[in-house]
Design a protein that fits this description.
Layout (H helix, E strand, L loop, with lengths): L12 H12 L5 E3 L2 H6 L13 E4 L3 H12 L8 E4 L14 E4 L7 E5 L4 E4 L5 H8 L4 E2 L12 H7 L6 H4 L6 E7 L5 E5 L9 H16 L1 H7 L25 H4 L8 E8 L1 E2 L3 E9 L2 H6 L1 H5 L5 E5 L1 H7 L4 H9 L9 E9 L5 H11 L7 E5 L2 H12 L1 H6 L6 E2 L6 E2 L5 H15 L3 E6 L4 E8 L4 H20 L17 H20 L28 H5 L4 H6 L1 H4 L18 H6 L6 H17 L14 H8 L11 H10 L6 H5 L6 H12 L7 H7 L1 H8 L3 H8 L2 H11 L12 H5 L9 H5 L3 H5 L1 E5 L2 H6 L1 H13 L3 E5 L6 H5 L3 H19 L5 E3 L2 H6 L2 H7 L6 E2 H10 L13 E3 L3 H6 L3 H11 L4 E2 L19 H18 L3 E3 L3 H11 L6 H10 L1
Parallel strand pairs: 2-4, 3-4, 20-21, 20-22, 22-23, 24-25, 24-26
Antiparallel strand pairs: 1-2, 5-6, 6-10, 7-11, 8-9, 8-10, 12-14, 12-15, 13-14, 13-18, 16-19, 17-19, 18-19
Length: 1000
């Protein structure tokens, strides 16, 4: 039996009192000290792990002032906190053992846009892509660019002075900050305005200005000697630019890259840049990465807006990734081989390309360049594909098989581009000495390369090697006049600040820190440690995720790869409502309810389980009959999340829609639905299930029986008293009506479409060659039979002979709810049915995307093999492709596809297949992106999830449907039922429209 796992590391009395005090001051946001949330925020995209005391989610600036005011009270001056942005730091900048201040949940509003002044005011939780999407209609953008732009917040970018592609032209974030509103540890908000016409600062800021000027004046000689002359200048703290030649203080240059150690940013006023409207991108091929690097100095002379490079390791991994098909024709050598490296050289201008583009064009066409070949990408689609290849470098490296994973601890060193090739050769020699694999990519126009050596930090020797490599690379970078840390902050590499700066300037850093934060309560230990030390300087020997993961037995780590391999990249925090991953996070803004959060909770659960001397292999899922377990669980007492950590993990898993977007959209392929089902099976071996679980476990067979008397069943479901019982006792709401007739009932009128072994035996060869087998699912057969009937009739209208196989339960609901023994038995029964039909050698198609695709993914895991049933649209597109087009396509779009998110993510050809089918019949089908509808099978029918389900629907579907001029077509049953529930509309399946077109 699953043992009790009391949550570890309960808050001490001081931190509990602090939380109570902040609440008493009128904090209006959210405060979360649950262990599961703390575990989620204990990691970011770095290798390190530090458990925070809790997290404050402020709703506005006044909430930040309340937290800071509590810090200022004498009894709480031992308490400290760190602000956190998108959680994408690769070196642990915001990890803390104190409290976390996270503005991403509530303070994510674009306050105002002034297109004429080219200025925008944003709250710190606004995401970069979110901002640029809003600015696009004004033909403006925020120029600093970072790879995780879909989840990186502007507050986080300010705190790390973020930059990326194009920084040689556009600079860093601090170059675009006009003003900030900050809260200091005095509990008050202050304005730091860098504009020439700024009003005089308040007394506190004026005093800081004076102190900073004094510090800079006293150390000008050392600053000039120590700070390297690089376009990628040194941030954290940027003493070289904090005071200009006229003696004017620029405190925002210190805030930029300060990692939250100086102030809590509550608002930013940012400078905007006109969007280049003329762009060309060259993909230059090389035999080796060294050749690509050595060509950088010559390429810079053409003055492009960016030069990015990708090495042979990343190129090799790309071949096995879907991105490769989009870029193959642009990067492959003439013989079809992958080049040793690629340089991407971009020119962007306003109304006209810079003249350097024509000069490079001439050089390439005259074979005067150092590349072995090139491709000029002019279309936006081509450029986007090439940049996706470059931006995908981190994800491609993260998918490296094996226990050793590429890690970001020396990935943002910078040197003068003129010495980059020699520097990288020496860098590689260090890595080769340790025998570690690695990949390289990055911004060679500014001499900054991202390097990720592959290590297994569950091995203490590899933890030691990580520190040794860092120390040696630090010396190497400095010997070339460069920096160890340039783009991603200091974080746990802060220990190298003292030897780099030397005692005079290190002391100056401490003086700067005291001027802003005299009690050292803001992210102490990062950048500089004050004397006496509240927290030691952040160092590379800090605990890593591997430190904790090695406490989990190796076999257990292997059994749960989805949870163990999450590297915290945060792709599941994508802000875009049209992105399919992750709907539960996007609706709740709760990071626990994301793949990253669920993987973090699962890893910790496995660790705590191992600490009891047990593993999941020692636990046995419940095997007694479902009816007996349901009777046992009736009236079970509610669980206390604080009594057993397993309850908190259950809460995280229960919020998952099992849509499987994470299994394909996460760069690391964190497959939450799989380990969710495994966890639920073990958890409910001890703890009671919600009553709805048992009702849903019998959904498929129950619907088949109810469909025999649909009128009676539907009448009963309309009775208010019965609906209240369903909601109150079973936890189910808005039950759908059964179809009249159901598909099996309709087939009685059309027996020629019913498959039986006898009907097959009576067919001649011609009939058999035109046969297509249709497999039923409970959703379309019993709840939406008109769709299933349309599919059958469409197959017949195309000249084929549809044969509908008698209904057999797939077990999909059993898998979702973690009834794994029952699911395996059901899957084996269903497999026998499918495989017997498959022996006839004719196509087998499924209608409902989630069920059809489960016969591949879920069945592989449960019974060791996939079933040969393909999505209907794939067969349809192929079948139509064998026929001549029947109609000339209309020029204007008339339909828009709202595809099922599982089909979009697990069957990449699904939308294209539907579009091709429509085109063949003279119809135009738009296939734009839309997020999750929020229903996901029965998720939206569970009372405890109804509000979240509706919130997910309103994120993208509600607005897009309302604005959709073309008629929406919806292949997924769940999606159609969600539209019916919240918009009282009947959405058509694409097959229904195609059938009507054929009949017309």
């Amino acid at each position: 039996m699953l043992p009790t796992l009391p949550p570890e590391h309960a808050l001490d009395s001081l931190h509990c009192a602090f939380v109570e005090r902040v609440a008493a001051l009128g904090f209006t946001g959210d405060i979360d000290t649950s262990y599961a949330t703390r575990i989620t925020l204990a990691t970011d995209n770095s290798a390190f792990q530090t458990l925070p005391a809790g997290v404050f989610f402020p709703r506005d600036e006044a909430d930040i002032e309340r937290v800071a005011s509590a810090l200022a009270e004498p009894e709480f001056q031992a308490v400290y906190l760190a602000p956190r942005g998108g959680g994408t730091s690769t070196i642990g900048c915001s990890l803390t053992a104190g409290f976390v201040l996270d503005c991403s949940r509530h303070m994510n509003r674009i306050v105002s846009i002034d297109p004429n002044a080219r200025e925008v005011i944003v709250q710190p939780g606004v995401v970069l892509d979110q901002l640029n999407a809003a600015l696009a209609e004004h033909d403006l953008f925020f120029a600093p660019n970072v790879a995780p732009s879909s989840r990186a917040t502007l507050g986080g970018m300010a705190n790390t002075d973020g930059c990326g592609k194009g920084s040689r032209i556009y600079g860093k974030t601090s170059d675009h900050v006009l003003a900030t509103r900050v809260v200091l540890t005095d509990g008050a908000a202050h304005v730091i305005d860098s504009r020439d016409d700024a009003p005089a600062p308040d007394a506190r800021i004026a005093a800081i200005n004076d102190r900073v000027k004094s510090i800079i004046d006293d150390n000008r000689g050392e600053i000039a000697r120590v700070f390297p002359d690089l376009s990628r200048y040194l941030s954290g703290y940027n003493l070289a630019q904090a005071v200009d030649a006229q003696g004017r203080c620029h405190l925002n240059k210190l805030i930029g890259g300060s990692e939250g150690t100086l102030a809590l940013v509550s608002e930013l006023t940012l400078k905007l840049t006109p969007i280049p409207n003329t762009t060309v991108l060259y993909a230059l091929r090389y035999d080796s990465f060294d050749a690509a690097l050595r060509d950088a100095e010559r390429l810079v002379e053409y003055d492009p807006s960016a030069i990015e490079s990708v090495d042979e390791k990343v190129m090799g991994l790309a071949r096995d990734n879907p991105i490769y098909e989009r870029v193959r024709d642009m990067i492959e050598n003439a013989d079809g081989s992958t080049p040793g490296a690629v340089n991407l050289v971009e020119f962007a201008g306003r109304d006209a390309l810079p003249e350097g583009a024509s000069r490079l064009d001439a050089a390439l066409n005259n074979d005067e360049a150092g590349a072995t070949g090139h491709y000029r990408a002019e279309s936006a689609e081509q450029r986007a594909a090439l940049w996706d290849l470059r931006k995908g470098g981190v994800g491609l490296l993260g998918s490296t098989p094996g226990a050793k994973k590429p890690l970001p601890f020396v990935e943002d060193t910078v040197v003068d581009p003129r010495v980059l090739a020699d520097y990288v050769a020496d860098f590689r020699a260090i890595l080769d000495e340790y025998g570690v694999a690695y990949g390289m990519f990055g911004h060679i126009d500014v001499g900054c390369l991202h390097v990720r050596p592959a290590l297994d930090l569950t091995d203490p020797d590899d933890e030691r090697i990580m520190r040794e490599i860092t120390t040696r690379v630090r010396h190497l970078a400095e010997s070339y006049g460069g920096l160890l840390w340039n783009e991603h902050g200091k974080g746990y590499r802060s220990e190298y600040n003292r030897p780099f700066f030397g005692e005079p300037l290190y002391g100056a850093l401490g003086d700067i820190k005291r001027a802003f934060d005299p009690r050292n309560q803001l992210n102490p230990g990062k950048i500089v440690a004050l004397e006496p030390e509240r927290v030691p300087i952040a160092a590379m020997d800090a605990p890593t995720r591997g430190t904790f993961d090695r406490q989990i037995p190796a076999d257990e780590r292997t059994a749960f790869p989805g949870a163990m391999q999450c590297n915290g990249n945060g792709a599941c925090f994508d802000y875009d409502p049209a992105h399919v991953m992750c709907p539960s996070y996007r609706a709740t803004r709760d990071r626990l309810h994301s793949p990253k959060g669920r993987a973090s909770a699962m890893r910790e659960w496995l660790r705590q389980l191992a600490a009891t001397g047990q593993t999941t292999a020692d636990l046995v899922p419940a095997e007694s009959p479902l009816w007996l377990r349901a009777a046992r669980d009736l009236g079970a007492a509610p669980t206390d999340p604080e009594a057993d950590f397993s309850h908190q993990v259950w809460q995280a898993m229960d919020g998952c829609l099992s849509c499987r977007a994470c299994a394909t959209q996460c760069p690391i392929r964190v497959d939450v639905p799989t380990f969710k089902s495994e966890f639920l099976a073990l958890y409910h071996g001890r703890y009671a299930r919600p009553p709805a679980d048992y009702a849903l476990a019998g959904l498929e067979t129950g619907a088949a029986w109810a469909a025999k008397l649909p009128g009676l069943a539907n009448t009963a479901l309309r009775v208010p008293a019965l609906r209240r019982i369903l909601a109150d006792k079973l936890g189910l709401v808005d039950p759908p009506a059964l179809s009249r007739p159901s598909l099996p009932a309709w087939l009685k009128q059309y027996p020629a479409y019913r498959y039986t072994p006898d009907s097959w035996a009576l067919m001649d060869d011609r009939e058999r060659k035109r046969t297509v087998f249709v497999f039923q699912d409970a959703f379309t057969s019993f709840f939406d039979a008109p769709v299933a009937i349309a599919v059958v009739e469409l197959i017949a209208a195309l000249g084929y002979r549809p044969q509908v196989v008698p209904f057999s339960a797939s077990g999909k609901p059993l898998h979702v709810k973690g009834f794994l023994p029952e699911f395996e038995r059901t899957a084996n029964r269903h497999a026998r049915v499918v495989e017997a039909v498959a022996e006839h050698g004719r196509p087998l198609v499924g209608i409902e995307p989630s069920v059809t695709l489960a016969l591949d993914t879920d069945y592989r895991q449960a019974i060791g093999r996939a079933l040969p049933v393909q999505p209907f649209e794939q067969w349809l597109a192929a079948a139509l492709g064998e026929q001549a087009p029947s109609v000339v396509a209309d020029a204007s779009p008339t339909y828009r596809l709202f595809n099922h998110c599982t089909a979009r993510t697990e069957s990449s050809a699904s939308s294209r297949a539907w579009r091709d089918a429509f085109e063949h019949l003279g119809l135009v089908l738009e296939t734009g992106d839309v997020g999750c509808c929020g229903m996901s099978g029965a998720y939206g029918h569970e009372a405890r999830h109804r509000d979240t389900s509706q919130a997910i629907f309103e994120l993208s579907w509600a607005e897009t449907l309302a604005a959709s001029t073309p008629q929406p077509l919806v292949p997924g049953y769940s999606c159609r039922s969600q539209i019916a529930r919240f918009q009282q509309k009947t959405a058509q399946h694409p097959a229904q429209v195609l059938l009507a077109a054929l009949r017309a």
